[in-house]
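User: Teach me something about this protein's shape.
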Amino acid sequence: HHRNEAVRLSDRIAVMEGGRIAQIDRPAVVMNQPVDEFVASFVGTETILEGVVRGTNETALVVGVNGAEIEVVGKGRVGEKVLLCIRPENVTLAMPDGAVKTSARNTFRGRVGRIIPLGLFHKVEIACGFSLVAYVTTHALEDLSLKEGSEIAAAVKATAIHVIRKSG
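Assistant: First, the predicted structure itself:
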């Protein structure tokens, strides 16, 4: 019943909701490609954003979320409602001056809301038009001089975002 232990020790994981199996698969699939919002939340996806597909091409979507545009790898159609699932270990933080170039397609300027110590790392909640969660080491926290209220830039690779298409 402990997520990390289940991932480390199992060949398959089943997530149950209301007495039914919501998803069963290899640990990497369940953790990184949850079938719905319940499973995503259950397996530790800290950022789940509702959005609408604004544009598409052969390999990617542009999804509108609270005025921001987020590029993700996936398929969909313009106007379709989707959920974007972002695991906190896939969010990178940097100083907001924008001097660092990366391959991440999504960069958001924001402000640190809360910093929560979690033993070997810290959970950082960022307000950037929506709530985004990142995990950082104590060393990174100190190097970036992060404090509640600090301005920050958060980056997420388009390949690190899982899209759940909403029916209807």
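Now, about its shape. Residues 23 and 102 are 34 Å apart (CA to CA). DSSP finds four helices and twelve strands in the chain. If you'd like, I can walk through any region in more detail.
User: That's plenty for now, thanks!
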